[in-house]
Design goal:
The complex is a heterodimer. Chain A is mainly β. Chain A has helices at 135-138, 143-146, and strands spanning 4-10, 13-19, 26-32, 37-43, 51-56, 63-67, 75-76, 97-103, 112-117, 120-124, 132-133, 157-163, 171-176, 179-183, 191-192, 213-218, 225-230, 233-238, 262-264, 272-274, 294-297, 305-307, 325-327, 335-338, 344-347, 355-358, 364-371. Helix content of chain B is 18%, strand content 25%. In chain B, β3 and β4 form a beta hairpin. Chain B is globular, with a radius of gyration of 12 Å. The N and C termini of chain B lie far apart (36 Å). Classes of the chains: A mainly beta, B alpha+beta.
């Protein structure tokens, strides 16, 4: 069994955490890119020496860096994601951040997808060296309505790009705010997939799009099983059905079912973890009642168990962003999350107990596991 | 040939040099020459719609430039600056 490297993307640089064999003690490496805004760091499972990293600085525009030696050396790619030049000032979009990175299908080595803010979908066919807009989405006739350029705090984010392991042409993506969209032809055409999802911040809660999926995941062993942590609850969808079921209804009412990340067990499609945050009144997005906890389901969301041993018992208002919680890539029951206050927490027993493995880092945007 | 003063966030591209030489009769031409010499640098300053990024400022001599077609006279110094953008 190998131990993972955790890559930590923060508002002020990148870090890596390496554990000992028992994953009790972790060694912090970094910072890399000190002062750069690091959004997402992702390893290529088809070519584990390759990692990509989405970055910008306070002054400079967005770009992507690539490592071909598991994170030792990084070089900027030659053509970062950029929208096509528009003749219309109204339609003229410029990438402000490379928010999300997804390796492509295993039968398409070198293919990667990127999601940006403002919302845009981009594709690389050379392991991230050059990127081109996915016109089928970015130039779709409905795109100006699906992604009108909402000025949410971090901009309109395209994320959760999911490739069906059975079919490279079958792709899902999410926009926050915009909803979930599906393509069955490799990205040439797209359709919303939001039936059953609440959008209680809109005048018409039954709209076809305009929802706020915070994080969408597909089970690798059962790609028909999707989960999402939404602005308006936790949902499950078993394809080919199209109507999401709000499994967050089974969460304790006092805790609610609002948060950012959702993480799946790598082998069991019925096991998932969420990290609830306060979604009441002005949407504080901090641990409910100042008492952080992870909630786990073993039965696809029919019931949830609180798991908080080792976490602060009170007076701890943690915020964990959508890319800042992950699990082991293999069945080791490791779970990890990073907070906007710069702490990283780990569990090696499926969330039963937790210990803090790093403190005093900058604001954490992402925590991703990589094989070492 | 103009002397181009490079703000510190851009010096990864110039291998640490604070001042480099570039030529062009307009700001656009000068930026294109810089891109040839230091690949990747231009996109960090100018977006894909050919707009100067919000926290970048370009001065020719003491004139702030907002239009990349503005002329650059021979020997005029150019400053590529990063505007203060908080913590």
């Amino acid at each position: 069994m190998t131990t993972p490297t955790l890559w930590i993307g923060t508002r002020k640089g990148a870090f890596a955490l390496r554990p000992d064999r028992r994953r009790r003690h972790w060694t912090l490496r970094g910072p890399l890119f000190l002062g750069h805004v690091i959004q997402h760091i992702v390893q290529d499972p088809r070519a584990p020496n390759t990692l990509l990293l989405g970055a910008k600085t306070g002054h400079l525009g967005p770009t992507v860096y690539r490592s071909l030696d598991r994170g030792r050396k990084w070089l900027e790619v030659s053509t970062p994601p950029a929208f096509r030049k528009s003749e219309s000032a109204e339609a003229a979009r410029a990438v402000e951040r490379v928010f999300w990175l997804t390796p492509g299908h295993r039968d398409q080595p070198g293919v990667w997808y990127a999601g940006t803010s403002p919302a845009g979908l981009f594709r690389s066919e050379d392991s991230g060296s050059t990127w081109a807009p996915v016109s089928g989405f970015n130039d779709h006739p409905m795109f100006p309505q699906w992604a009108p350029g909402w000025k949410t705090p971090d901009g309109e984010l395209l994320h959760s790009i999911l490739i069906d392991p059975r079919d490279a042409r079958h792709i899902y993506l999410a926009i926050s705010i915009g909803g979930i969209f599906e393509s069955t032809d490799g990205g040439s055409n797209w359709a919303p997939l939001n039936e059953g999802v609440s959008a209680d911040f809109l005048p018409d809660p039954s709209v076809a799009f305009g929802h706020d999926p915070h994080c969408v995941v597909m089970h690798p062993r059962n790609p028909d099983r999707l989960y999402q942590q939404n602005h308006c609850g936790i949902y499950r969808l078993d394809r080919p059905a199209r109507r999401w079921e709000r499994i967050g209804r089974a969460m304790p009412a006092k805790v609610g079912d609002i948060g950012f990340p959702i993480v799946l067990h790598p082998q069991d499609p019925d096991t998932a973890w969420v990290l609830p945050m306060d979604g009441t009144s002005v949407w504080p997005r901090t641990s409910v009642g100042g008492r952080p906890a992870v909630y786990r389901t073993y039965n696809g969301g029919k019931s949830w168990q609180r798991r908080d041993r080792g976490l602060p018992r009170s007076r701890a208002w943690l915020t964990v962003l959508r890319q800042a919680m992950c699990g082991d890539l293999e069945a080791r029951s490791g779970l990890y999350f990073g907070t906007t206050g710069g702490e990283v927490w780990a569990s090696i027993n499926g969330g039963d107990s937790w210990h803090c493995i790093a403190q005093r880092l900058p604001e954490i945007h992402s925590v991703t596991a990589a094989v070492h | 040939m103009s002397s181009v003063h490079i703000a510190s966030p851009l010096r990864d591209y110039t291998r640490g040099a604070a001042t480099v030489a570039a030529e062009g009769s307009t700001v656009a031409e000068l930026l294109a020459d810089l891109e040839r010499r230091y690949p990747g640098m231009r996109f960090r300053m100018i977006d894909e719609q050919q707009r100067i990024r919000p926290h970048i400022r370009i001065f020719v001599a003491t004139r702030e430039i907002r239009d990349l077609q503005q002329p650059v006279a021979p020997q005029e110094p150019v400053h590529l600056l990063c505007a203060l953008s908080g913590g």
